[in-house]
Every structure is written in structure tokens, then in C-alpha cells.
Amino acid sequence: MTFLETYAIALVVILILMILLWLYSLFLKNSSIVDIFWGTGFVITGWLYFFLSPDAPLPRRLLLNLLVTLWGLRLSIYILLRNWDKPEDFRYQKWRAESGSTWWWKSFFQVFLLQGFLLWVISAPLLAAQRGGSSGWTLLDLLGLAVWAVGFFFESVGDFQMARFKANPANKGKVMDRGVWRFTRHPNYFGDAAQWWGFYILATPAGGWWTVFSPLLMTFLLLSVSGVALLEKTLASRPGYKEYIENTSSFFPWPPRKKAPRQKRDTR
Q1: Running DSSP on this structure, what letter comes out for residue 268?
Q2: How far apart are CA 127 and CA 8, in angstroms?
Q3: Are 112 and 22 in contact (CB under 8 A)?
Q4: Average per-residue pLDDT in the chain?
Q5: d(Cα 71, Cα 74) in Å, to the nearest integer?
Q6: More exposed terminus of the chain, fewer Cβ within 10 Å: N or C?
Q7: DSSP secondary-structure letter at 253?
């Protein structure tokens, strides 16, 4: 089976899953469930590529899918727990209010089909990494694993620290400027992007160098669309956040320019 044939099968599977997820969202009247599925969707796609590429060397395929599974399931579980018993995300509430009675079908194209398409496009290195290459480990494999590990640390630790911070009522109205949040205002988004660069590096020994569009697109989305830009826009007018911006790197981890103050409003 060729790359394009396998890639096309994945597109059909993703489309079916997104249709089912969309129908379930209509029952729940909550489009936010698409965010919970995002990580799991890559896990399903990665293992689909695994079973459709049986002739490629096993070690890299196993390593890649274990890393994707750790990333995707952790992200989905985190978002599920964060959103449990919460109303629909404000983005979807806004679109729902603007669309009125037509949101039920617009949501399929604007939310579910779009995210399904992005998932499919971004998954390219997950397939490329499982199509060939040597059976032994290379320096690029080790580099990809190291980059992924750095990203996983910042994303998982950042999410854990923020969740624990918010769970303490004494922190209400304060900025989370401790732990990894001292070094970047968005450790979760940086970590997410870093992990996808790690996946891409793992694909290069198998000839997947051309799938560089995947981590570039993921990084662009995190920086300019659904991640940093959207969050910074909503927080820009909050008291104390301007000083936090002045003290702390926006994306890439870096030592704070000066000691960040404690008594500010929450950033997330």
C-alpha cells in the first residue's frame, strides 16, 4: 500500500469519526467535545498508520506511536477533566449565538470538518516515519526523542501546575508565575509545538523530511490562531498582566527578566 493510499484511508476514517462526534455534540448541545478528541484523534491515526505499514522497521514505529499515545491521551484526559461539568467553551458559545438556529449544521463545517482536516494534514509525519528507514537507531532518532521529552515536560508540568494553582481558592485573582510559568507565559503551547517538532525529526530518518509543513502548521496554529494570540487578546486588559508580559517570555522558555510579582489576576 502506497503512502497516498494509506493517507487517503486515514482521511476517510477521520471523516467518519468527526461525523459521529458532530452528531454527539448535537445531542449534548456542546461543540467543546471536539477539543477533547483532538489528542485522541492523533492516537487513533498514528496506530492506524502502524497497522497499515507492517513492512517498515518496527522499533521506530513503536517508539513513535508510544510517544504520540502519551501526548494525545494525556492531553485529552486533561481537557476532559478541565471541562467536566463546565459550560461550552466561550468560542463556540459566541459562534452559536451568532449563527442562531443554523449552528447545528454550520458547526459541522466550521468546527468538526475543519479540525478533522487539520488533524489529517498534521498527521503526515506520523505516517512518513512508519514507511521506511533503517532498522537501527540514528542520531536523529535520539534528537527527536530529546526534543519530544522537553516538550512533554513543559506541557504536562505546566498543565499540572496550573490546575493545582487554580484549585487553591487562595490563588483566586492572582497570576500563575511559579514553576515553569516563570520561564514562559505559555509552557503548554510551547511544549505542544516542541513535541510535534520531535515527531517530525523522528520521521526524517525514514525519508519524511518533506513533512516539515506539519510542525510548521501546528506551531502557527498555537502561536497565531487558537493558542497564544487568542489567550493574550483576552488577557491584555487585565490588571497586572501587562507587568507579567514585561517580565516573562511569551513562548520560548527563558529566565524571567526580573522577579515576577505574586499578587495579580489569574492568566488562564
Answers
A1: -
A2: 11
A3: yes
A4: 91
A5: 5
A6: N
A7: -
Quick one: pLDDT at residue 263?
Answer: 52
From the CB of residue 166, how many other CB atoms can be counted at a distance below 10 Å? 14
Grid cell of 80 as nine digits: 476532559
- Length of the chain equals 268
Q: Please, are residues 49 and 10 in contact by the beta-carbon 8 Å criterion?
A: yes
Q: What is the pLDDT along the chain (268 residues), one digit of tens a residue?
A: 899 999 999 999 999 999 999 999 999 999 999 999 999 999 999 999 999 998 888 889 999 999 999 999 999 999 999 999 899 998 899 999 999 999 999 999 999 999 999 999 999 999 999 997 777 788 999 999 999 999 999 999 999 999 998 888 888 777 888 899 999 999 999 999 999 999 999 999 999 999 999 999 999 999 998 888 877 777 776 667 778 888 999 999 999 986 545 554 444 4
Residue showing cell 508510544: 66
> Please, where are the H alpha helices in the chain?
3-28, 33-52, 58-83, 90-99, 103-107, 114-122, 124-128, 139-167, 187-203, 213-220, 228-235, 241-247
Could you tell me the residue ranges of all domains in the chain? 1-136, 138-268
Q: Which amino acid is at 5?
A: E
Q: Is residue 65 within 8 Å of 146, Cβ to Cβ?
A: no
